[in-house]
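For concreteness, we quote verbatim a single protein encoded this way:
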Amino acid sequence: MTKRYALRDDKWEKIKNLLPGRKGTVGVTTKDNRLFIEAVLYRYRSGIPRRDLPERFGDFRVVHTRFRPLG
């Protein structure tokens, strides 16, 4: 993964237990919370539309659905 837009390990350690979808919490367990966060950071740091997310982040629609505010 390109380090330029990647989340540093020390930053990940600070937030990993705050995210929904982790093992042991109610609801659906995500495949990879860190990959989701890195996809969001990549999109906003690079300024690209969500459709242009690199394939390594998975389906852009899944990232969008998870990021979209509820309500």
Observations:
- The mean pLDDT is 81.
- The helical segments are 9-15, 33-46, 60-67.
- The CA atoms of residues 9 and 71 lie 32 Å apart.
